[in-house]
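Technical note accompanying the year-one report. For the benefit of new consortium partners, we illustrate the data format agreed upon in the data management plan: each record pairs a sequence with a structure-token string. No post-processing was applied to the example shown here.
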Amino acid sequence: MLALMMCGISANAQMTKKDTGNGPFKERVSKLWDKTKKTATEVATTIGDEISNSTSGLRRIEGKYYMNIYDVNLYEGSDCATMLDLCRKQFKAKYPNVPITSCVIPQTDWETETVETNGQVTGYVQTLFCYIIGKDGNEGFINAKFVFERKKDVGKQLVNNTMKWPLWTRTDVMTNHVYDRLTRK
């Protein structure tokens, strides 16, 4: 009986150290866990990037943040052509050799925020954004963002903010690869 028990213990010990060519069981579990953690981290990062993309107007590609690409003009205000021309002039002054492929205001109307002082509404600030995309030779693209802002005190007329008429707020220079990723739906 004792010999039989010794055989059972020996067989059990061999099973726990079983090697299938991929390392001991403990190593295989550890490798599986590491792969699972890496995959879960990648999925979480991708989901986080997509959430931030939809709320911030920025998209993360290869560790860097880029503005979304806008190429459809939605604004139909009487001042639209004038505002687009002002942005084009600033862009061309800075990048005279870069052809503009699109210049748009991707909003249907001004974004309005209330201005409060001590809990009382004292005025309003309205904002409109313009985006220009330029083709930088065969190497890539330039995406520029401009802001127009106007203010209104309660009971008074709207006044254009000359400091932001327009104000160039951001420029993204990107490779063709990044541009292709940004334009993918």
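Partners are asked to follow this layout when depositing records. The two ends are 72 Å apart (CA to CA).
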